[in-house]
Amino acid sequence: GAVVSQHPSRVICKSGTSVKIECRSLDFQATTMFWYRQFPKQSLMLMATSNEGSKATYEQGVEKDKFLINHASLTLSTLTVTSAHPEDSSFYICSARVVAVGGTQYFGPGTRLLVL
Amino acid sequence: AQTVTQSQPEMSVQEAETVTLSCTYDTSESDYYLFWYKQPPSRQMILVIRQEAYKQQNATENRFSVNFQKAAKSFSLKISDSQLGDAAMYFCAPSQGGSEKLVFGKGTKLTVNP
After folding, report:
1. Cβ burial, residue A60 (10 Å; 0-12/13-18/19+)
2. How many Å apart are CA A98 and CA B95, to the nearest integer?
3. How many CB atoms lie within 10 A of CB A40?
4. What is the pLDDT of residues A68-114, one digit of tens each?
5. Are B49 and B35 in contact (CB under 8 A)?
6. Do B101 and A46 touch (CB under 8 A)?
7. Other Cβ atoms closer than 10 A to A24
């Protein structure tokens, strides 16, 4: 149980375009999902907390107009990178929190974004 | 802001031996959770073990166990009978706040030698 999927696994786009990444909890409902960014050989950096039916909470320094987060249902959260630039190239990971297991987060497999 | 320190950037262990990864953290909260996650080369984050801060008993999951010292804010991971498949980056992560967001340390790269 507690499986989280992410789509796409890899995306290459041109500078100035927008990219949408989906995060789904497959076998449980998640009122809270999280979005992380990870640069090579570095740790995970939390970008935002996504709550179903309400606005996301962004961490300090994360541009909310650039990284749009929507959590429209209990099993789906999306991250849209708007007007992507090469510096947005990174590995993006989502997670979903399982309330019944005391705050445990289960992670998706990640999305590798390359902006040319 | 909460800080998490993993003082060992890299560790190595012989297959079948035991290794301990250290983690210290700073928090003002009294009730929280602590986690160890591993990230193999596939980059999939995998839950290794979970500890509830209000419980004094150390968590154990098969070959994995923790030494949780709440007053010292220390949360080390012991891997017994190390296997080649244990090779990965290991991240320590306490939870923070009502949303129980996780704060990750910089990680320890574990190599298992045959």
Report:
1. exposed
2. 13
3. 6
4. 999 989 999 999 999 999 999 999 999 999 877 777 999 999 999 99
5. yes
6. yes
7. 19
Contacts of B100 (CB under 8 A, 6+ apart): A32, A97, A103, B32, B33
Instruction: Measure the CA angle with vertex A102, ends A98 and A108; round to 5°.
Output: 35
Looking at beta carbons, which residues of chain B come within 8 Å of A31? none
Which residue is it, tokens 């190599």? B111
Q: CA A59 to CA A90: how far, in whole Å?
A: 17
The letter for the amino acid at A32 is T
- B33: number of Cβ within 10 Å: 20
CA distance B72 to chain A (A): 22
User: Which CA distances in Å does B13 have to B9, B43, B74, B109, B111?
Assistant: 14, 21, 22, 11, 6
Nearest residue in A to B45, CA atom: A107
At B31-62, the pLDDT tens digits run 899 999 999 999 999 999 999 999 989 999 99
- Residue B21 CA: distances (Å) to CA of A76, A110, B38, B92: 35, 25, 12, 9
- Using CA coordinates, name the residue in chain B closest to A109: B44
